[in-house]
């Protein structure tokens, strides 16, 4: 029966309940699965999963429940796939002797060997004959040189059965705890909106039209009102250069998403390097500085501030005075505190994973700003916090 | 079920796609679930994977008439049921043109209302449900569940004689509420793999040579694997691109700076720049 499978799904945070169980049993009663495990896989997926971010968890649960593929080895595979994908080694030609050495193994032995190798392998291998890698002659890997049977690791693996399909984890890019792409970011930012009626009166207010017309003894009196429009103002403050370089791509995606989000009434973007001192810059190349005092004068507390940065720097950068005239003789951390004070709705998005947040400067900044990881989940939490703050 | 036989009942009906709409097994399974369990089918996926066309294909395969409700950012749930034109009635009352006491004249059914009121089964497409306000899907829960609603002005109830097949598409611009999701059969249309894409291309451009299609697909998938793109080209762009290549009489393509009609595949300025940046320097230098 599939009930334990539902609990397996629940343990992986796929929200399934009685409704889904009833629907699935109805579908099975109607014979929609054609009495096959593969048919069951598709029917169950259609009925139990409601969002593509759960597809990966579903596949994992399915693989575990119906064959017991170890989740651990799957994690390892992900790393392997990286190695395989990066491979750009030119192929070599095998000698007949080498070919003869490679005896044909049957699938079961291969699979067992594969699991074993996965457990043992700890580093990248190319052109070898044992480990999982590329351009090699081991039975596992990609771009291998022989026409013998083997496991192809990575894209294009022509595996057929449902359990294998589940094991491929084709949907892992849709998980919500992974780092985001532009579209997902837009969805998350969309929640950052608040409506207000402002502007030209061009929407019919039916209720007031009726009551005004009645008051007018039946002579039509049309009342118009302004339509609802978004009233959200956002300041995006981004750390660029140095330790942020590995994340430049990610930050530029967030920037694109924010720019494209049409529901902001106003979006201001500024840049800084490592730590904010008395000024922020309008260009990523540190041109056109704006003193913080001017920024504070132009924008009030209704603006929502999103700072993006890894918060990693030498401790002295946080605690020292830069010496610019508009610095007002204050340390970096004091400027951060001023920002936080001026904008009650503010947060810090950190592309570094939370596991590394114990590092000294991150830890200090965490005490100033509420900090969230730059993942879909983190962005969602940050947006939630921003909308709550008044 | 025999291929091409007209479907009268839904019992045992299986969706097989149509001549011009090719499906995968998982999609067929999801459609069958939705039809058998009489639940709305929620379809998500990358733009250009044929979400909207699915409803047309279902209508064509089942022989039922298709009703389309295009959702916009200003659409309200009420619009799908019925609209009461109060302003028209007020106007008419001033000039005594019509009998304004008959309120029915001023009530127009929306697409959902029409699908309920129709004497036979309809396929109803609610297109891009995520464009509307966040509360929109919640407002439709009861109507889609019970397949009935009450017109308050006339105190009449519109009840579906036969439950329409409801297909809902979403581009993922907003999260849909859980209560709504729980009532739907969900399908995520994956981007077609090379085999399926080959078949799709064959359906649209049967006269292209195999070698040409093969080259074009290689270029297309290589381009999609290029991670610096903001918007990756999709099926419909590939079809358009092939049409352009065909009309220009080009018979072989390869991925380099001189790729013809690149504008049909890449639509963003940054993407074109990234493309030029990546492939431009590989171009042979001519004196």
How would you describe the overall organization of this protein?
The complex is a heterodimer of chains A (390) and B (287). Chain A is an alpha/beta fold. Chain A folds into four domains: 65 residues; 93 residues, no CATH class; 34 residues, no CATH class; 157 residues, Rossmann fold (3-Layer(aba) Sandwich), CATH 3.40.50. Chain A is built from 16 helices and 15 strands. In chain A, β14, α15 and β15 form a beta-alpha-beta unit. In chain A, α9 packs across α11 and α9 runs parallel beside α16. Chain A is flat, with a radius of gyration of 29 Å. Chain B folds into two domains: 165 residues, Rossmann fold; 87 residues. With 287 residues, chain B is an alpha/beta fold. In chain B, β6 and β7 form a beta hairpin. At the A-B interface, α2, α3, α9 and α10 of A face α1, α4, α7 and β9 of B.
Question: How far apart lie the N and C ends of chain A?
Answer: 51 Å
Reported by name, the CATH topology of the largest domain in chain B is Rossmann fold
β-strand percent of chain A reads 5-15%
Overall tally of structural domains of chain A: 4
Q: Measure the end-to-end span of chain B.
A: 66 Å
Largest sheet of chain B: 5 strands, parallel
The residue ranges of chain B in which pLDDT falls below 50 over 5 or more consecutive positions are 1-9, 282-287
Task: Please state the overall shape of chain B, judged from the principal axes of the Cα atoms.
Answer: elongated
Average predicted confidence as pLDDT of chain A: 71
Radius of gyration of chain B: 24 Å
How many helical elements of chain A? 16
CATH topology of the largest domain in chain A: Rossmann fold
